[in-house]
Write a structure and sequence with these properties.
This protein is an alpha/beta fold. The chain has helices at 6-19, 24-42, 56-70, 88-97, 138-147, 197-200, 212-217, 227-233, 260-271, 286-292; strands spanning 47-52, 74-80, 104-108, 122-126, 154-157, 180-184, 202-206, 248-252, 276-280, 297-298. The chain is built from 10 helices and 10 strands.
Length: 299
Amino acid sequence: MKLLTAEQIRKLDQLTIEREPISSLDLMERAALRCVDWIWLKYPKKKFAVLAGTGNNGGDGLAIARMLSRRDSDVEVYVFGDRKSGSADFASNLKRLEEFPEVRIYFLDEENHLLSILPERIIVDAIFGTGLSRKIDGWRGDVIKELNELPNNTIAIDIPSGMFAEQWKESSDPIIRASDTLTFQMPKLSFLFRESHRYTGRINVLNIGLDREARQSFDTPFHLTTRIDAKALVKSFHSFDHKGDHGQVQIIAGSKGSMGAAVLSTQAALRSGAGLVRTHVPKCGLNILQITCPEAMCS
């Protein structure tokens, strides 16, 4: 799987809009529906607090809030910032959401940004997306720090608010700590940093139908081997194949008290489809290897 930068993903969105064709608002609607389907499977009939910025990530959050309300969930929405400064798709989704009077909408600003979220509510984080380029400071940063002290389960949409899409930054910066992250089409590069796990939680990649041909056209040095990629590398066997038809692997590994690597590498070679595996180990580890990997030739 190719991993793209935030700028490449924005171009991929635009190419999908042009080629499918589909409006940016309808693409946002499709992404929101994928999120709601996932959320509903894990948290059916729960109460939700949706946190929305005024950009397109916030537009995703507002669409999610509307769809959850349609499924008879109790939903309240906190908008971070002035509605007049929002993107066009944010404004469209806010207008749609206001047609649902049962959804309570609160607008936060520097003067009024106190939150009162009950512990049983699932928090949906859609404050900032992959376009973030600087540290979140001021009252928004203070609110994120307060949110991280709450016991609620938190679902981040596309990327936890405050995290950069391509690089790691100091962990003292305000970043939402999510239980799950629902990211669109592919993991973001920053998710692969060891330190990011405490913020992303479990990473769930949702297919929102971005143009496959366009996705493959981008040049990138970053690739992630998926289960599908690995499966394509494994050759199929036929009924009359001989072990000599599928290559040989020779392994030299192990020492007294440390036979784990020898066992695992032998099992991996066999599992990957090698026809003949020879493993050379110290005499003290011979019995261990013959018991755990009887298919291998041991010496």
